[in-house]
Specification:
- β34 (412-416) and β35 form a beta hairpin.
- The protein has a 20-stranded parallel β-sheet, with no helix packed on it.
- The longest helix has 42 residues, at 556-597.
- It is of the alpha/beta class.
- Among the domains are: 1-99, Leucine-rich repeat, LRR (right-handed beta-alpha superhelix), CATH 3.80.10.10; 587-632.
- The protein is elongated, with a radius of gyration of 40 Å.
- It has four helices and 42 strands.
Length: 632
C-alpha cells in the first residue's frame, strides 16, 4: 500500500510506479497537484484493488482501455474532481468487477457508459457533471447491487429509471420530462429506497397516491424545481421515516395536509413557490396522553404561496425549529406572542415578509438570542421599533454552528440592496433586519447600533422621525443601509463614513439637512439618488453646493465659517442702523432747525400751509354739490 494523498506533490504521475511496484494493491495520490498524462504502466498492476487519483488537475489526461489492460483485481476506482477524459469504447469489456466507481467531474461526453452493464458487484456509482446525455438504458433498472447513485448535472432525458435495490439516487439538474415518478416497471416496490432527488428537471404530472406503496421506507424526497401540479396527497403522511421533503418551485395547489409532520423523523419541509392555499398545519406529532409532543423539525419554508389565516400557536411546540419562512402569503392577524426564545430557543431565521400582519412588533422577539435574520417587511405593522432588539446575541457576535443547512437544498430569499437574492450555502453568514414598508413611528433606537455583525438594515417606507443615531458607525459589518422614505431630520452622522464595508446607501426622501459628510467610505457612494428628496442637504454628490466647499468632514471649519458669517452679519446690521439714524437726524434738524432759527422763513412756511388748507376747503365746497346733481 502506498498512500501519498493530500500533500502538495506536483508534476506527472511517474512511469516507474507501474513498472517497479508490481505487488502494489492500493495506491492513493488524491488531493495533490498532479497534472499531465497518466502513464499506461499503471495498467500493469494486476494486484491493484484500490486506485485513487481524485482531486488532481488532470484535465489534459485521457484514459483509454490500455490504462486498465491488466487491472483484473481492481474493485475501487476513484478519479472524481480530476476533469480528465474517459475515452472507452461502448463494446469494451473491462477485466475487473468494480464495487465503487467515482468519476464525477470527469468527461464522458456521450451516452450512459455501456460497459457498466458488465459490473455485477458495483454498489456506489458517482457520475455527476460528466456530460452524459440521452436516456438511461433499460438494463440500468436491473443492476441489483447498485445502492448509491449520483447522476446529477448531466443531460439525461426521458423518464427516471431506478435500480431495483437502490438506497439513494440523485438525478437532479437533468432533462427528465416524464409525467410519472416511478420506473418503467411500475409494479416494483423499492423496499431499500431511502432518498430520491429529481430536482431541476421538467417532470410534470401529479404526485401519485401510490408513491408511498412504491417506496415505503423513503427518508428523502426532493422534487423541487419541476412542473409537478395537483395537490399533495394524504398518502404523503404515511412515510414514517421521511426526514426531508422538498417540493418547492412547482405548480402544486390545494391545501397542505394537516397530517403532514406526524412522522417523528421529519426535519426539513420546503414547499415554497407553489400555489398552495388554506392555513398552516401544525407540523407536530399525534396526540399522546393529553399532550402534543414536539418533533425534530428544523426547517419550514412555505413562502410564496397563497396561505391565509393566522400563524397557528401550535408551532410553539417546534423547539428544534431553526428556520420559519412563511413570507409572501396572505397571512393576517398579529405576530404571535409565542415566538419567544423560550418556545423557539434555536430559531435563527424568521421571515414573515409581505403578508397582512398588523399590530406592533412584540418585544418577545428580542428574546430570540440566536436570531440572525428578522424580516417583517411589507406588512401593516405599527408602533415603535423595540429598543430591545439590541439584545439579539447572534447579531452582535458570530457563532459558527452545525445545523440543518443541507448544502444547496435550503434556500431563503432576501431583498438586499433592492434585489431579491436566494441565499443557500452562505446563509449562516447572513445577518439581516428588514422592517421596511410598514407604518412604524418614533425614532430609530440607539441600541440598534450594537448589532455589530448586522450586514443589512432596511427601515425604509415607514414614518420614522428624529435623527439618525450618531453611533451608526458602530455597525462595522454593514453592507446595505436603507432609511429612505421616512421623516428623519437633522444631519447625516459623520461616523457613517467609518463603515468601510458599506456598499449600498439610501437616505432619500427624508428631512435631512446640512452638508453630506465626505470622509472615508462615503466618498465611494456617490449616487445623488441616495440623497434625493432632502431639500436642505448640500454637498457632493448633489448639485447643490454648500456655502463653503472647503468644509472638512468633521464639520469644524464649517462651524468656524458659520460663526464668522454670523459675526459679519451683526456688524453690517449695526452699521446700517447707524447710517439711517444719522441721515434722519441730519434731515430733521436741517428743516426744523432752520425754521426754528430764522423767523422770516418760519412765517413764510406757515402762510403757505394756510393757503393750501384754504384752497382744499374751497375746492371741496364747490365741486361736491356739482357731483351730487350729476348723479341725481
Amino acid at each position: 500500500m502506498l498512500d501519498l494523498s493530500w500533500n502538495s506533490i506536483s508534476g506527472r504521475i511517474p512511469v516507474w510506479l507501474g513498472e517497479e511496484f508490481r505487488s502494489l494493491k492500493s495506491l492513493s495520490l488524491s488531493g495533490n497537484n498532479l497534472s499531465g498524462e497518466i502513464p499506461t504502466s499503471l495498467g500493469m498492476l494486476s494486484s491493484m484493488k484500490h486506485l485513487d487519483i481524485s482531486n488532481n488537475p488532470l484535465e489534459a489526461a485521457v484514459l483509454s482501455e490500455s490504462h486498465f489492460a491488466n487491472l483484473s483485481s481492481l474493485t475501487d476506482l476513484f478519479m472524481d474532481q480530476t476533469f480528465l477524459t474517459l475515452k472507452l469504447s461502448s463494446y469494451w469489456l473491462p477485466p475487473f468487477q468494480l464495487q465503487n466507481f467515482y468519476a464525477s467531474y470527469c468527461k464522458i461526453n456521450g451516452p450512459f457508459p455501456q460497459w457498466l452493464k458488465t459490473q455485477k458487484n458495483i454498489s456506489n456509482l458517482y457520475l455527476s457533471d460528466a456530460g452524459i446525455h440521452g436516456a438511461l438504458p433499460k438494463w440500468f433498472h436491473n443492476m441489483h447491487s447498485l445502492s448509491y447513485v449520483s447522476l446529477s448535472n448531466n443531460q439525461i432525458t426521458g423518464c427516471p429509471i431506478f435500480p431495483v435495490n437502490f438506497e439513494q439516487i440523485s438525478l437532479s439538474n437533468n432533462s427528465l420530462s416524464c409525467q410519472y415518478l416511478t420506473n418503467m416497471s411500475r409494479n416494483t416496490v423499492y423496499y431499500s429506497s431511502q432518498g430520491v432527488d429529481l430536482s431541476d428537471n421538467s417532470i410534470s404530472g401529479q404526485l401519485l397516491e401510490h408513491l408511498y406503496h412504491d417506496m415505503p421506507n423513503l427518508s428523502t424526497l426532493v422534487l423541487s424545481r419541476n412542473l409537478i401540479n395537483g395537490s399533495i396527497p394524504e398518502s404523503m403522511c404515511h412515510f414514517t421515516s421521511l426526514q426531508i421533503l422538498d417540493l418547492h418551485k412547482n405548480r402544486l395547489s390545494g391545501t397542505i395536509p394537516h397530517c403532514l409532520g406526524e412522522s417523528s423523523e421529519l426535519e426539513f419541509v420546503h414547499l415554497a413557490f407553489n400555489n398552495l392555499s388554506g392555513d398552516i398545519p401544525c407540523f407536530r406529532l399525534t396526540h399522546v396522553e393529553n399532550e402534543w409532543s414536539s418533533s425534530y423539525l428544523s426547517f419550514v419554508s412555505l413562502n410564496d404561496n397563497m396561505l391565509s389565516g393566522q400563524i397557528p400557536s401550535c408551532l410553539a411546540n417546534l423547539s428544534t425549529l431553526e428556520v420559519l419562512d412563511v413570507g409572501e402569503n396572505k397571512l393576517s392577524g398579529e405576530i404571535p406572542m409565542f415566538i419567544t426564545g423560550l418556545n423557539l430557543p434555536v430559531l435563527r431565521i424568521l421571515r414573515l415578509r409581505n403578508n397582512k400582519l398588523e399590530g406592533s412588533i412584540p418585544e418577545q422577539l428580542c428574546s430570540l438570542s440566536n436570531l440572525q435574520i428578522l424580516d417583517l417587511g411589507l406588512n401593516y405593522l405599527g408602533g415603535t421599533i423595540p429598543s430591545c432588539l439590541a439584545n439579539m446575541t447572534a447579531m452582535n457576535s458570530f457563532v459558527d454552528y452545525d445545523s440543518i443547512f443541507y448544502a444547496d437544498m435550503n434556500q431563503v430569499n432576501e431583498v438586499i440592496k433592492g434585489i431579491e437574492r436566494a441565499y443557500t450555502t452562505t446563509l449562516k453568514y447572513m445577518v439581516n433586519v428588514d422592517l421596511s414598508c410598514n407604518n412604524l413611528i418614533g425614532s430609530i433606537p440607539e441600541g440598534i447600533t450594537n448589532l455589530t455583525y448586522l450586514r443589512n438594515l432596511n427601515l425604509s417606507y415607514n414614518h420614522l422621525s428624529g435623527q439618525i443615531p450618531m453611533s451608526i458607525g458602530c455597525l462595522k459589518s454593514l453592507e446595505s443601509l436603507d432609511l429612505s422614505r421616512n421623516k428623519l431630520q437633522g444631519t447625516i452622522p459623520i461616523s457613517m463614513g467609518a463603515i468601510f464595508s458599506l456598499e449600498s446607501l439610501d437616505l432619500s426622501y427624508n428631512n435631512l439637512s446640512g452638508q453630506i459628510p465626505t470622509g472615508n467610505q462615503l466618498q465611494t457612494l456617490n449616487d445623488p439618488l441616495s440623497y434625493a428628496g432632502n431639500p436642505y442637504l448640500c454637498g457632493d454628490p448633489l448639485a447643490k453646493k454648500c456655502k463653503s466647499d472647503n468644509d472638512s468632514p468633521n464639520g469644524s471649519s464649517g462651524d468656524q465659517n458659520n460663526e464668522d458669517e454670523v459675526s459679519e452679519d451683526k456688524h453690517e446690521t449695526m452699521w446700517f442702523y447707524l447710517v439711517v439714524m444719522s441721515g434722519f437726524a441730519t434731515g430733521f434738524w436741517c428743516v426744523v432747525g432752520t425754521l426754528f432759527l430764522k423767523k422770516s422763513w418760519r412765517h413764510a412756511f406757515f402762510r403757505r400751509v394756510e393757503f393750501v388748507q384754504d384752497w382744499l376747503y374751497v375746492a371741496v365746497v364747490v365741486r361736491v354739490p356739482k357731483l351730487m346733481r350729476r348723479f341725481i
